[in-house]
């Protein structure tokens, strides 16, 4: 697998220019999804062996290695945008679904409520606690045996929430603001504390185990009300419950392709620019004329607004590159997005290995 880092503006322009080159009808059916006024064409993959005379579509590992690549477009602490090029939609979608449902994380599974005198019912409180993202590396823990009543240091994280609301003796007499009248009346996720089990205090001395975000409101209290709760976090996957999903969102879209079939200038060029997202079409001065040019089709949302204009719809061709997927991954903060992508790849590899093993066993039988 090849990994490439962000393209320069000139490289992006060169890519857009290359995509505008004409192609045969067969190549268009094989490689492009066409956006029409009343529908979308060439939606299904058709480049399977024997479907097109003169084309060798048999799968070849060496050919795949040459054409497949990943380009990192943007990366920060919580989000990652990258291009996956030269892959079939079925594999890209499998990768997306693995990110959503099969990359393990740690989440609150058991809630032991010793005291809850707030107005929130025990079940609602437990549900809210379960959805709080917990910052702990799941790779350092094992899956807990469902039959085990008590967790151990290798499969369980223990947390505690203990808060009691009291009156503020220093509050102004004429105040009606709860922030001034009461102490600890707002219970946040930051009030959840880690209680190490066994040797966890030494093993995870450098790890800040606890909620990812400390500003998640869990409950509101009034004087005399209190919460005393102990929670057990276990390892799980999003397929079992959404609270284990490591991503806030994981999605992809095909790379848009906009081809101008002839020169568009003047007032038409201005209207054409307004039909697309900002940055897609720019007006350039060519020998004193205002001429429209596709600058960055990647920014287009494929709204097809241009097809509403009778004098423009036949001058522009809208499409999408079938094997160019723009992935967007947003982490919940449990693990960095680049780590999540790596773990998803490992899950996909293990699935393939399991499938091959079962095939071998079937042949032996």
UniProtKB/TrEMBL annotation:
Subcellular location: Cytoplasm, Cytosol; Nucleus
One cellular component (GO) term of this entry: RNA polymerase III complex
CDD domains xrefs: RNAP_I_II_AC40
Primary residence: cytoplasm
A GO biological process held by the record: DNA-templated transcription
Protein's UniProt keywords contain Acetylation: yes
Gene Ontology MF term list: DNA binding; DNA-directed RNA polymerase activity; protein dimerization activity
Xref: InterPro entries: DNA-dir_RNA_pol_30-40kDasu_CS (IPR001514), DNA-dir_RNA_pol_insert (IPR011262), DNA-dir_RNA_pol_RpoA/D/Rpb3 (IPR011263), RNAP_Rpo3/Rpb3/RPAC1 (IPR022842), RNAPI/III_AC40 (IPR033901), Rpo3/RPB3_RNA_Pol_subunit (IPR050518)
UniProt keyword annotations, A-Z: Acetylation, Cytoplasm, DNA-directed RNA polymerase, Nucleus, Transcription
Domain DNA-directed RNA polymerase RpoA/D/Rpb3-type: 79-358
NCBIfam families xref list: PRK00783.1
Role according to the record: DNA-dependent RNA polymerase catalyzes the transcription of DNA into RNA using the four ribonucleoside triphosphates as substrates. Common component of RNA polymerases I and III which synthesize ribosomal RNA precursors and short non-coding RNAs including 5S rRNA, snRNAs, tRNAs and miRNAs, respectively. POLR1C/RPAC1 is part of the polymerase core and may function as a clamp element that moves to open and close the cleft.
Family the UniProt entry places it in: Belongs to the archaeal Rpo3/eukaryotic RPB3 RNA polymerase subunit family.
Protein name stated in the entry: DNA-directed RNA polymerases I and III subunit RPAC1
UniProt organism field: Cyprinus carpio carpio
Organism placement in taxonomy: Eukaryota, Metazoa, Chordata, Craniata, Vertebrata
């Amino acid at each position: 697998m090849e990994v490439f880092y962000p393209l320069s503006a000139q490289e992006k322009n060169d890519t857009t220019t290359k995509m505008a080159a004409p192609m045969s009808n067969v190549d268009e059916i094989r490689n492009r999804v066409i956006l029409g006024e009343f529908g979308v064409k060439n939606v299904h993959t058709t480049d399977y062996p024997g479907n097109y005379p003169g084309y060798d579509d048999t799968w070849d590992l060496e050919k795949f290695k040459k054409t497949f690549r990943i380009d990192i477009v943007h990366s920060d602490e919580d989000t990652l945008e990258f291009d996956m090029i030269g892959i079939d939609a079925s594999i890209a979608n499998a990768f997306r679904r693995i990110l959503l449902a099969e990359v393990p994380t740690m989440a609150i599974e058991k809630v032991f409520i010793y005291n809850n005198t707030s107005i929130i019912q025990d079940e609602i409180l437990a549900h809210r606690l379960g959805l709080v993202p917990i910052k702990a590396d799941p790779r350092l823990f094992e899956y807990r045996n469902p039959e085990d009543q008590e967790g151990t240091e290798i499969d369980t994280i223990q947390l505690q929430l203990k808060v009691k609301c009291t009156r503020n003796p220093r509050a102004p007499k004429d105040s009606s603001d709860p922030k001034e009248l009461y102490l600890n009346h707002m219970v946040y996720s930051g009030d959840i504390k880690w209680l190490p089990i066994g040797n966890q205090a030494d093993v995870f001395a450098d790890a800040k185990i606890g909620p990812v975000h400390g500003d998640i409101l869990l409950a509101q209290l009034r004087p005399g009300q209190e919460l005393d709760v102990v929670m057990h976090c276990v390892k799980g996957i999003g397929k079992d419950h959404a609270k284990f999903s490591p991503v806030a969102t994981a999605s992809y879209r095909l790379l848009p392709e906009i081809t101008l079939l002839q020169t568009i200038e003047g007032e038409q060029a201005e209207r054409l620019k307004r039909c697309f997202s900002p940055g897609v079409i720019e007006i350039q001065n060519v020998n004193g004329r205002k001429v429209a040019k596709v600058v960055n089709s990647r920014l287009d949302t494929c709204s097809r607004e241009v097809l509403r204009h009778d004098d423009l719809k036949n001058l522009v061709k809208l499409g999408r590159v079938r094997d160019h997927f723009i992935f967007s991954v947003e982490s919940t903060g449990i693990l960095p997005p680049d780590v999540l992508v790596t773990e998803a790849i490992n899950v996909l590899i293990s699935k393939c290995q399991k499938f091959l093993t079962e095939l071998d066993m079937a042949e032996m039988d």
